[in-house]
Amino acid sequence: MIENPLAKKLRNHKIVLASGSPRRKKFMETLGVDFEVRLPHVDEVYPSQLKAAEISDYLSALKASGLRSSLKSNEILITSDTVVWHKDTSLAKAVDAKAARDMLQKLSGDWHEVITSVCFTTIHDQLIVHSITKVKFRALTATEIDYYIANYHPFDKAGAYGIQEWLGAVAIEEIRGSYNNVVGLPSHLVYKTLMNMVP
Prior knowledge:
The chain has eight helices and seven strands; from the N terminus they run αβαβαββαββααβαα. By secondary structure, the protein is α/β, with parallel strands linked by helices. Helix 4 (97-107) packs across helix 5 (142-152).
């Protein structure tokens, strides 16, 4: 039987995923590696002058800051953050239905970027990578937006939508870049980075 190449590389290492996202956990399971979840406790606040990938890079490293001191020598901590960037503005998680409606109205009929940064931290090193995917929404009606919000409650997602849900199926006209990145984790980059990190 041929062993999973990444699992073989990580045989003497332990992956720690600092995320409660079921989507990110599923991606790690799909990669075929064992991991433990440890949740970070940080206020996700960033300097106002940061833009686009600078925001997600900063926040992914910030999430690692509170957990790094507890890492063991064989552990690799993975933290991540996703930003939806539209017209020079970051669209974060919606606090309520009104905020979600405002975000989706802005994205309607236009392109935006979904940027996910992943920070890999050990007791010795830290490396941050990110992936950018361009997404085009067709023009949405008010009824479509209200239906989606009422039935899917997308308040835990940047930009107030999940590409894997109903809105993704009916609204997205074009994607340039990684689909998995929009779901929440650029799994191809995680795989490549881990393969290169371990001798």
